[in-house]
Amino acid sequence: VSNAGCSAKDSVVVDFIGSSISLSGNDKLCLGESTVLTAVNSNPQVNFSYQWSPSSAITSGQGSNQVTVNPTQSTQITVLATAQNGCEATDSMMVLVGDIPDSLVNLTATPALIPQGGTTQLTASPSGMTYSWIPNQLISNPNSAIQNVTLDETTTFAVVITDGICTKMDTVTVTVYPFVCDEPFVFVPNAFTPNG
């Protein structure tokens, strides 16, 4: 500012404080499961209020930076964060929902009782999934739903079944009994002839 040869000067510093948010949490669920999603604020100096959508998928926490969601199908979850000065930040996450009904998840051993060195067949269902076997040292084809295993001792097997989104597990125990041929063990026949 100047006036008749006189001048004065002033200045002001404008600080812009920015922030962004990002969503974190489990993005793969089985139908009926819930998960917690968190909106992470990159700048704690900025206070946000949060609006999550779709509201039908939110079971608790609406208005906060952390919500529990329970979508019934694969759903894009979005959060809109609004600062006190009106600035907005947003992020979204696709939460995938798979469906493997518990009633279909089953692992069987046929037979479940075998002699030492005997073989049993393990069958996992439902079919058409991806399988992981535990213990896997005895498994010849880990991607197959059907396994033939030879055992020397009683073993509990587990199979993890997934459709790429939902993961379920079942177990079965195969009992192994030893051959005993020495006394005092006596062989008892299960049939008799007329002559004894």
Structure description:
The protein has 196 residues and is mainly β. 0% of the residues lie in helices and 49% in strands. It has no helices and 17 strands. The strands form five sheets. The chain has a four-stranded antiparallel beta sheet with strand order 3-5-8-7, with no helix packed on it. Strand 16 (155-162) and strand 17 form a beta hairpin. The chain has strands at residues 2-3, 6-7, 21-24, 28-30, 35-41, 48-53, 58-60, 66-69, 75-83, 88-98, 106-110, 113-115, 118-125, 130-134, 146-151, 155-162, 167-177. The radius of gyration is 32 Å and the shape is elongated. It starts with a strand and ends in a 19-residue tail after the last strand.
Q: What number is the mean pLDDT?
A: 88
The rounded Rg comes to 32 Å
Distance between the termini: 130 Å
Beta-sheet strand percentage?
A: over 45%
- Tally of alpha and pi helices: 0
Classify the oligomer.
Answer: single chain
Low-confidence runs (pLDDT<50, min 5 residues)? 12-16, 186-196
Question: Could you spell the SSE succession in H and E letters?
Answer: EEEEEEEEEEEEEEEEE
Strand order, biggest sheet?
Answer: 3-5-8-7
Largest β-sheet summary:
4 strands, antiparallel
